[in-house]
Amino acid sequence: MRRAATLTLVLLIGYALLAYLVLPGFWTHYEHQRGLANLPMVTRTAQDIPGDPMNVGLIGDIKDVVCAMHAAGWYPADPITLKSSIAIVGSVLLDRPYKDAPVSNLYYLGRREDLAFEKAIGASADRRNHVRYWKVLDKGEEGRPVWLGAATQDRGVGISRYTAAVTHHISPDLDAERLVLATDLENAGMVEAKYQVTGIGPTIAGRNGEGDLYYTDGEIWVLRLVEACKKREGPAVTIPSPPATELKDQIWHAIANAMGK
User: pTM of the prediction?
Assistant: First the structure.
């Protein structure tokens, strides 16, 4: 009995160390952009419901961001007004283009998005790629402003699971949408270098502010933009992640593939 009690105690201590000290450190890394370490990584809706998670970052001033997004073929979203609301309804119902249709507001650190861009999929505004950006640091590790963004793909119009309002529903694979945006920016020659920082962490069954299911490896790919819109020749430099993070990514993708994600 004494041996069994001792073994149980050792196992409990080992579990506590693993679960509350070792593994949290294993999944978390901010070494490339330490100013992000204490920031939340999920947006909020106007009703304060957790919204879309952050999954992309940009390094550069606002002119660099706007120029890069335009060069990549993404258009600024119109503000939400009566006119733009009528226009987006017409686009969906009549299947006609509206390449700069408005996006609903999300909030981060108490304010709505600073910038929003989109890229149409097909003719109608019911399907599109879009991203919202917030400037979160005036000066990051590179001495330039840092922006965090939530990139998602709208797959159609429907009813919110939480509020019953008419809304866009998103595709669940947030990593695929992150890749679309990053690839467009890189192909346009707007990215000098890229690296990962910690986002929300691996998530298999998350829900956004409309109740839509999503999954993600929980990483934020940060893209260091070119300055003054001077196009880069050749591929962007990839700054490696720590070995533990590389291993974590391999584990995540193995789990996601096994689950058919």
Answer: 0.79
Give the start-end residues of each E strand in the chain: 42-44, 50-53, 56-59, 75-76, 107-108, 111-112, 115-120, 128-137, 146-159, 166-170, 191-198, 203-207, 213-216, 219-225, 237-238
CA–CA gap between residue 65 and residue 58 (Å, rounded): 7
Residue matched to tokens 């160390």: 17
pLDDT tens digits for 119-169? 988 665 567 899 999 999 999 999 999 999 999 998 766 565 655 555 668
Rounded Cα distance between 123 and 140, Å, is 39
Structure tokens, 105: 């507001």
Q: Cβ(36)–Cβ(206) under 8 Å?
A: no
d(CA 51, CA 72) in angstroms, rounded, equals: 26
Residue 28 · residue 41 · CB < 8 Å: no
Per the document, the length of the chain is 261
Radius of gyration of the chain measured on its C-alpha atoms? 20
The candidate with the shortest Cα–Cα distance to 234, out of 206, 199, 192, is: 192
Domain boundaries, given as residue ranges, for the chain: 28-258
Q: What is the DSSP string of 35-83?
A: GGTTS--EEE-TT--EEEEP-EEEES-HHHHHHHHHHTT-EEPPP--HH
| d(C-alpha 237, C-alpha 152), whole Å | 25
